[in-house]
Design goal:
two-stranded antiparallel ribbon; mainly alpha; binds glycine; 5% strand; 376 residues
Length: 376
């Protein structure tokens, strides 16, 4: 897709990408044998050692593949392939796996297979997808998110980013069961997670037999009924992805509705999202929510009519330009985007670099440079 950007915006996208590429070429070699989640004093940690089943463990490989597609620099490919191999150990811990197998294997093996046709990567995707299928509750019509006896009915909005694994696997198998499960899940969350005003619930506990709402839980937001900004981003991007993979109009309309709320909320803070749009402490921000939302807004722009496109693209650019102020493009720090926040309620994990911030910031620029291959 070639975007109709102004000369100034195009120059900004290209210059920012070049800074990213220059830095990541160095970091890709320095962190080759790690799966980073965050950086402590500028040095990537290593989730391959700390917890190989951690939900973010696909983002590093995904970031490397984004850079590879645009630059064709073999250093990126080597690091991405290494991270994918390290991730294999997670399959041996099946009892610890969760619904985030989509995040984990779409961006690692899924990207590898889409780019290179690697047959082993394809099998990893199919295997991971079947673990997600196995979490489906056919009576309640939802995919359970986590493990544990007390939360069999818990579903989180983040799951909308995992179900593209089912669309991919269903297409590979040419088997409609995968899309059926993904659509039922997405349809359930329209009813249980998306609020009338365009904000979303993070966690909802659903009845195992009927799928009816038992209670909504605040989760990573301030409290029940508040508006956790990254949850909003998962809904914006997740629903437009479901639209892209199914063509169902209600998914695009939902992505737009949540996007309108998100855009209105970030406009109040110079396009840098607060961690929760309805929390008392307005100084807690989450740059990762902005980066993810920008990707969703660009995909909405790609899927609406030509006279509507600009408002979504402009909002994405405003967010990305505001986030640039939080980027560290020096080689001294392994991470790029600073000031991500894991969760509003916790002291730990506020205003730290998080790997998905780097991933989504890069993915947004990758799209704006005209790269069409979608990893989701
Ligand atoms: N999926 C968990 C999070 O967004 O932090």
């Amino acid at each position: 897709m070639m975007y109709n950007l102004s000369d100034t915006d195009r120059a900004w996208v290209n210059e920012t990408w070049e800074k990213l590429d220059k830095k990541l070429k160095t970091v890709s070699e320095r962190s080759r044998n790690k799966i980073p989640y965050t950086a402590v004093n500028g040095v990537h940690n290593d989730m391959a050692k700390e917890d190989v089943t951690w939900w973010t463990n696909g983002f590093w490989a995904g970031l490397m593949w984004l850079m590879y597609v645009d630059t064709r620099d073999g250093r990126y490919r080597e690091t991405a392939e290494r991270a994918e191999q390290l991730l294999d150990a997670a399959f041996d811990e099946y009892d610890k796996l969760h619904h985030d197998v989509g995040f984990m294997w779409l961006l690692s093996s899924g990207a590898n297979y889409r780019i290179t046709g690697n047959k082993k990567s394809r099998l990893r995707v199919l295997y991971a997808a079947d673990t997600l299928m196995a979490r489906y509750n056919a009576e309640g019509k939802f995919i359970r998110s986590w493990n544990g006896d007390d939360n069999k009915g818990w579903v989180i909005i983040d799951s909308m980013m995992n179900i593209p694994l089912l669309y991919m696997s269903g297409a590979e198998h040419d088997d409609p069961r995968y899309r059926y499960v993904a659509e039922n899940h997405a349809d359930t969350l329209l009813r249980t997670h998306i609020r009338d005003d365009g904000s979303v619930n993070h966690i909802v506990n659903l009845d195992l037999k009927t799928g009816e709402v038992i209670e909504s839980i605040g989760g990573q937001g301030y409290k029940t009924g508040s508006s956790w900004s990254r949850g909003q981003s998962w809904a914006v991007y997740g629903y437009v992805l479901s639209y892209i993979r199914t063509g169902k109009q209600i998914y695009l309309d939902t992505a737009k509705k949540v996007a309108h709320y998100f855009i209105a909320a970030v406009a109040a803070t110079d396009y840098v999202p607060r961690s929760d749009f309805r929390a008392p402490d307005e100084t807690i921000i989450d740059t990762t929510a902005g980066a993810c939302a920008a990707c969703g807004l660009i995909e909405i722009a790609n899927n609406v009519g030509e006279y509507e496109r600009k408002m979504y693209l402009d909002a994405a650019l405003k967010i990305l330009k505001s986030l640039e102020k939080y980027c560290d493009f020096t080689d001294d720090n392994d991470s790029v985007l600073q000031m991500g926040t894991e969760a509003y309620p916790r002291e730990r994990g506020r205003h730290i670099p998080i790997i998905y911030g780097d991933y989504f910031f890069a993915e947004a620029l990758y799209k704006l440079r005209g790269n069409d291959l979608l990893f989701w």
